[in-house]
Each structure stands twice: as C-alpha cells, then as structure tokens.
Design goal:
The structure is a homodimer. By secondary structure, the first copy, chain A, is α+β, with helices and mostly antiparallel strands. Chain A has a single domain (6-335), classed as Phosphoribosyl-aminoimidazole Synthetase, Chain A, domain 2 (Alpha-Beta Complex), CATH 3.90.650.10. Chain A has nine helices and 14 strands. Chain A has helices spanning 13-23, 67-80, 101-118, 150-162, 189-199, 215-224, 237-249, 264-273, 295-303, and strands at 43-45, 48-55, 61-62, 65-66, 84-96, 122-130, 138-148, 180-183, 227-231, 252-256, 287-290, 312-318, 324-327, 333-335. The first copy, chain A, has a seven-stranded mixed beta sheet with strand order 9-11-8-12-10-13-14. In chain A, strands 1-2-7-5-6 form a five-stranded mixed beta sheet, covered by helices on one side. In chain A, α2 (67-80) runs parallel beside α3 and α6 runs antiparallel to α9.
Chain lengths: 348, 348
C-alpha cells in the first residue's frame, strides 16, 4: 500500500486493511476494559467510556441535518451503544479560511441544539484555521466521554435472570446463538440523503438523513433488560455491523429481507443507483442483540419512542451457519458480505 | 465578521473575538468543575479532565518532531497542567487521498513512541480519507482524558500549610500577588523550527522543536508542593499565557527580560525575521505559578530533569500593576500585550 486511497477510509474490508497495516500494529492495543484492538464503538478504561470521530461530510448542510448535528449524534451514539451515559463532548474545529461566518453560525447553532437535546454539554474545544485549499470548508471532530449507566446495571441484572453471563459492557462480541437482532428503524436514509443532495439526484425532498442522538431511547430499552450487544450502523451500514457482530461473537447471523425496515424512496434510489441499502451508512439507528426472552418487550419499548417507531426484529444469531445470511423476499438465500469499500464516500 | 480569516485561528485577540462571536455564546459553558467558559487547558466534569486539540502543522515533519509527536504531547500536556494524570488518548486521522504510506507509517511510529514515553495509551480512534485538495496531507486530532492525580493532592496539602486556599485544580485563575512565575525552559524554539523548515530560512540545523510530553516532570514538581497555576505556552506563546494568567486571576504580572531562557539561535532568527520570541508557540514548556515560599524548591526540581534543565524564575504576580509588564534588559519597562494574531500560522 504505497498511497492511501479513498477506499481505505470507507469502513469496509479495505479500511480494515489500512488499520491492520498502519494503525493497530503501532499502538498498545491491549489496555483497558474494552481495548483499542476490540474495534468497538468506544474504548473503555477505568470505567470511563471514551470515543472520537472526525467528520468530513460533503456537503456540510444536507436534508435532515448538517455537519454539526452529525458530529454530536455520532459521538453520543458511540458512547450510548456501549451501555454508558454520555457525560461530555469535546469539539475540535479545523476551518478553511474564507468560510462564511453565517455557515459557521449555522453549524454552531446546530451543535448547540443537538447537545441540548441529547443533554450532553461541550466541555472542551479547540479551533484552528487553515489556508484555502488545506481543508474542505470545515472538519468537525468530536470526542466524548461517558460513565457506567444505572440503566446498564438494570439491563444486566435482568439478563442474569435469564442466563449465566459475565457481560459488563454491551460489546460486539457478546452475542450467543438464539439472540434476536433488532434494528431501530429504516436503514440507508442518511447516506442516500447526503449523496442525493451532493449530486443533485432529486431524492432530497423525500429522503432525509436520520441523524439523531439515541441515548435517551437506548436508556429506555436498557431498562427493559436482556440486551447483550449494540452498535450504530454508520459507515458500511447494516451489512458491516452484522458482520462485525458475527465475527467478533463467533456466531452466524440469519436475517429476513422482508423484515428490514426501508423507506420506499430509499429502495427506489438504491435501485436506480445500483446501491445496496444494507451497505449505506446511518446516523440515527442502532442494531441490538437481545436475549430471545426479552426481544418482544425491547421491540415494543423502541416502537413507543419517536426515534424507534419503525423498529423491527430482523433475525437471530445462530450456530448453524457462518457469517451473515439473508433470506431474500423472493425466497432465496444470499450471503451478506461486509462491503469492500463504502459505496458513498464522505457521508460522515 | 463575514468570512473566517487565518488570523482568527491564531490564539491571540482575533481568536478570542472568533470564540466570543461564534463559539461560546452557542454552548452551555457553565457546566463542570472547570467549565468551557474558563477557556482553561482542559475542561473538568465529575473529576474527569477532558481536552481536545486538532493538529494541522505544516510541514508535517519538522526538526525535532512531527505531527504525530505533536499530537500526543499537546494533549498530554493540556491534561497534566491542570494537575491531572493523563489516562488515555483518542486519535482521529483525516487523511488526504494520495498520502504516502511511508509518511503515514512514520507518523504512526512517532505517535506510538510518544504515547509509550508518556505512558498514555491510545484507547479509541477514527480514520477518514478525503479526496485530494480536501485536506493538506493529514489532520491529526487528539482528545485526552485524565483523572485527579495523587501528586496534585500532595501539592495542595503542602500549599495549605502556607496559605488558606480552596484550590482544587491548577486553574489559570488561581494566582495571588506575590506568587512567583517559572518557565520550564527556553521559549520560541518550536515555532521558529517549524517556520524555518517550512520557509527554508536555514535555522533548521540549530533550532529544534521542543515538542515533548511533560506529565512526568510536572508530577515531580507537584510533589514539591505550593504550585497554584500551570499552563503550556502554545499558540500565542509566553506573552499570551502570562496575559491569560493575569486577566483570569485579576493580578498584574511583572517579568524580567534578562531571566527569560532563550536559545541564542532563536534570538538571532527572531531579530532577522522581526518576530518577538515571547509570542512564538512552544510544545514542550510549562509556565508555573507557585507560592513564593516554594519557588526555589520547585525550580530546583525542574532543573534536575532533562525537560526542565533550563527552567528559570522570570517574575511574579503583583497587585501594584495591571496586565503584564517586562523590565527590559536595557533597564526600561514595556507592556507585554497578548498577540493580536499568531505571527506564525500552522505551527500546531
């Protein structure tokens, strides 16, 4: 790999190659309760949950959100899916000289609103300005910290009534055969909304990004109990998330195409553009692995919330198969591979 | 302010204007033990110290360091100067397509080495790739978390034997008249090294960046006791740091030019380039405010370390004056203003 390519940043197999070649071998990746090598949504050390995300979405304003709301939601969700309560954000702005003051104001308004709604304040920040051409308008990097939530303890207590388990955090590796897979709503909206807006494909009026902080909904679901794993299906989409669950947990996952919630306009857009909605990134969805005894109750809880009203049970973990296999709507079966590279760059 | 300009990112008065106009009014800045509005080196909430810094240094490799060692040291130092023990780093890379794999490898080696030396592991990360022209090679953003250090408790216990105080963290606002000001070594090296390398001025062989994690040295100094404030004089240099101390603590500061440690080559370079070394950013220095009873002992402790061997006592806080006033080496007095804009952009 003599030059870094766009596909190396895309959250699929090529990205894994970049991480395995350049990043992970260089770092002590064995430290902490959830070490860096776990490649989970956040790292955990001394019961502090810690995560970071750089945002380079293009365009910076898109239907349903902007780089500001994205930067808050992305980080809040990465903490919440571990079972933690997000406590604070840190915000780093790298601004290209010449950015409109009004645009910066809109982005900051959006960060402010998203931070208030999620109940997670910005506690630290840094601002740099670089000359024209050294950035594309603005890069917003958000780090977040979280602490063990009471809701997680309740969830695990209830899980222990069902099975013997040593789970302490909602890691990707916790799934057991039989655990049900729930997705909290329609998939593919964010990526298609950003792509359509950028390229002028005309779906902008029908498809909005789902960008949204999910910490409140997740806390409610944890009170129901029985949840073992959670992940937000961002880069690489549902296909990547399910493959990460399967690989890290050492189980197969079978899903049913018929049950996957999809916005009809996303189906049409994906059909026209030759894209697979399962590979498209989301910014306001969570995929949940839950003990079968609690699956219906967790689903009902999600559906009672605005963010989770389209939640659906889409499949289960299994010891009978390897990888991720989907029963298609026409009755066949196909393997759902992790995407090689993201079909849509710069959506987050 | 209709457009954002380079000077808005420079850590002086213009930067303050940007923060006061666009950033701070948008954020709930009153939360935490050290809130965002304090504009201290880190924010503190629930005894967790949290900070972030985006690094856009140009060139990415410079005499004495590179963007990788810079990214680690900058964040480690921002935590250490609050009196905290840095626990973990999070690393966000935004890479321009086409970056040489070898360059990425060198940067990661440097991050690895700096993280090992400082004893602070990378616990979380994110990597994005953007198309050519959407970044200048690479942006490295580092966030860090720290926890209350035992050394800080020892320092405060010893301080309380000298004076009645409610200090809990080493905030910029803790100085009292009479407190001594120590700088841990020569100032201006980092900024001049980067500038000289970028522009080919020819000082590269004589002036190396001071980039260095100071957590170990700071911990030793805290064991001596009596320290009230600390700050690393990065963007805006010593001039900006002293003015922040003075303004936030509501005291004047008088310093003596003669005692300020300066590398002779930095004096020559600044003379030729018309720059004031007090306004040049550093990446391996700390400015310390300490109770007068403990000043000599702290100074001796610093001087016994490799990082602090050139430490010097340069002045004291005073109720007799306002702002920062310097006794010049020719016997006059001049006001040291905070720089309007950084004389050297993109040094960090």
């Amino acid at each position: 790999m003599s030059k870094i390519l766009m596909s190396h940043g895309a959250g699929g197999e090529k990205m894994k190659q970049l991480l395995d070649t350049f990043i992970l071998p260089k770092l002590r990746s064995d430290i902490g309760d959830v070490p860096l090598s776990a490649l989970d949504d956040s790292g955990i050390i001394d019961d502090i949950v810690f995560t970071i995300d750089g945002h380079t979405v293009k365009p910076i304003f898109f239907p349903g959100g902007d780089i500001g709301s994205l930067a808050v939601a992305g980080t809040v969700n990465d903490i919440a899916v571990m079972g933690a309560r997000p406590v604070a954000l840190a915000l780093s702005l790298v601004i290209e000289e010449g950015l409109d003051g009004q645009d910066l104001e809109k982005i900051m308004d959006s960060i402010s609103l998203a931070s208030e709604k999620a109940g997670v304040p910005v506690m630290a920040g840094d601002t740099k300005v670089v000359e024209r051409g050294a950035a594309d308008k603005i890069v917003v990097t958000t780090a977040g910290i979280g602490v063990r939530s009471n809701a997680l303890d309740i969830n695990i207590k209830k899980l222990k009534k069902i099975r013997h388990t040593h789970i302490r955090w909602l890691r990707d590796s916790n799934l057991q055969p039989g655990d049900k897979i729930i997705v909290s709503g329609t998939v593919g909206d964010h990526g298609i909304a950003v792509l359509s807006c950028r390229e002028g494909y005309g779906f902008e009026s029908e498809i909005l990004s789902d960008v949204c902080s999910l910490n409140s909904m997740i806390e409610k679901a944890l009170h129901v109990g029985g949840i073992v794993s959670m992940k937000d299906p961002t880069r690489g989409g549902l296909a990547n998330t399910l493959n990460e669950f399967a690989e890290k947990s050492g189980v197969g996952i079978e899903i049913d195409e018929e049950f996957i919630p999809l916005n009809p306009a996303v189906i049409i857009a994906c059909g026209l553009l030759g894209l697979d909605p399962l590979e498209i990134g989301n910014e306001g969805k969570v995929v949940i692995g839950v003990a079968p005894e609690k699956a219906d109750e967790v689903l009902a809880c999600l559906r009672a919330t605005e963010e989770g009203k389209n939640a659906a049970l889409i499949g289960q973990a299994s010891s009978e198969i390897k990888g991720v296999v989907m029963k298609t709507s026409v009755g066949g079966r196909r393997v759902v591979e992790p995407p090689i590279g993201d079909p849509i760059p710069r959506i987050c």
